[in-house]
Amino acid sequence: MGRAMWILLGASVLITAPSGVVLAHDPVFGIGPHVLFKNGLELAIETGREKTGPEQESELALEIVYGITGDWAVGLELPYAVKDEGAESSRGLSDLQLFTKYRFWREDSFGLQVSAAVILAVNLQNGDEKEDPPLGNGATDFIAGLTYGYESLKWYRWASVRYLAPGENNSGLRLGDKWLVDFVGGWRPADPEYLKPDTVWLLELNGEITDRAELNGNSLVNSGGTEWFISPGIFWSKRNFAIKAGVQIPVASDLNGTQGKSDYRLKASFEWHL
Length: 274
What we know:
This protein is mainly β. It contains one helix and 16 strands. A twelve-stranded antiparallel barrel has the order 1-2-3-5-6-7-8-10-11-14-15-16. A three-stranded antiparallel sheet has the order 9-12-13, with no helix packed on it.
């Protein structure tokens, strides 16, 4: 069997085999349909940083995901945040997130997988909203989404949409409903070889469309609006270990009233599949 055939066979195994190998890729900022194999366990450490004018926030999170079946996974994310707003600073646990993803459609062919999944998540109100600045919004938020992915030997593409419905906290504040829209392309510059490191370069277009917040039923003028980001990134993997990282660069914004525009957002994660 020639070298090219071994490459194709190895790539096919990477995409479809039910083992501890990193089976598929997901975007950095968007959401993909990838789920774990049955009884699989994923441990990840995620770090992020964002800046909006004088406001800065850094976050370190532990994520644990379990594969109930080959198409259904559940998980939790426990974040620790550091926030700075001028002279004010706070740090501590932020809102814990519980989530689940179900892949309802999948088609495999040699070296190609096309699939789609639904996502449900809830952000619990365990962060301390009494800190200044607050570490959580003091309410329970719900998220629902739909994602599609096309993954071949050379090219990747994903599309996803998520809807976030915030709750109301004890002070009567309810943040605006938000739509998150993502379009992502990926390119593998070198032919994959089984058991060797694999690199995929990513380029994302991420949009956030947010309604105005409300305080005791009254709309807040300086809240809500639309922002779009271009986000280059990388996904590097070797067997059951993966690193992905990217930066969000704002390219367009239409915010209501007087609000600071996003300067940048950074994100990186280190994943281990068991």
